[in-house]
């Protein structure tokens, strides 16, 4: 598993101060769509390991990170670049949808 666990305490360092774009999956263990998205996020973490950082935030254990960026529904996947969110999708998406989001963020 190439993705990292991000906490409220590590969010600034892991996401906002990262030199690479960061894909953040906001999720919770009880969320069935989140469980469906999780293997896709792990695959993308492996595929893009040299280009982006991929991390997961459990919103039950780390409520501040999600609320800071307006996460109201999960799964929410955001791409951060230069410390700012540049892409965001809510709800379970296809792998191609997430790939498109990452690719767009890489060229911006």
Write the SSE topology:
Blueprint (H helix, E strand, L loop, with lengths): L3 E2 L5 H6 L5 E6 L4 H16 L5 E6 L4 H6 L7 E6 L2 E7 L4 H13 L1
Arithmetic mean pLDDT: 94
Order of helices and strands: EHEHEHEEH
Query: Number of DSSP helices?
Result: 4
Share of helix among residues? 25-40%
Uncertain spans: none
Cα radius of gyration in angstroms: 12 Å
- The neighbouring-strand order within the major sheet is 1-3-2-4-5
- Backbone structural class: alpha/beta
- Tally of strands: 5
N-to-C span? 27 Å
Strand content: 25-35%
| Major sheet details | 5 strands, mixed
How does this structure look, described?
- This protein is an alpha/beta fold and 108 residues long.
- The chain has 4 helices and 5 strands.
- Strands 1-3-2-4-5 form a 5-stranded mixed β-sheet.
- Helix 2 links the parallel strand 2 and strand 3.
- The chain is globular and about 35 Å long.
- The termini are far apart.
- 35% of the residues are buried.
- The mean pLDDT is 94.
In short:
The chain is of the alpha/beta class and 108 residues long. The chain contains four helices and five strands; from the N terminus they run E-H-E-H-E-H-E-E-H.
């Amino acid at each position: 598993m190439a993705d990292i666990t991000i906490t409220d305490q590590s969010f600034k360092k892991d996401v906002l101060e990262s030199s690479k774009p960061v894909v953040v999956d906001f999720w919770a263990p009880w969320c069935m769509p989140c469980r469906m998205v999780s293997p896709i996020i792990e695959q993308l973490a492996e595929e893009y390991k040299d280009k982006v950082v991929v991390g997961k935030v459990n919103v039950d254990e780390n409520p501040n990170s999600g609320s800071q960026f307006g996460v109201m529904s999960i799964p929410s996947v955001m791409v951060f670049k230069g410390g700012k969110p540049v892409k965001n999708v809510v709800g379970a998406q296809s792998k191609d949808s997430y790939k498109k989001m990452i690719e767009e963020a890489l060229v911006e």
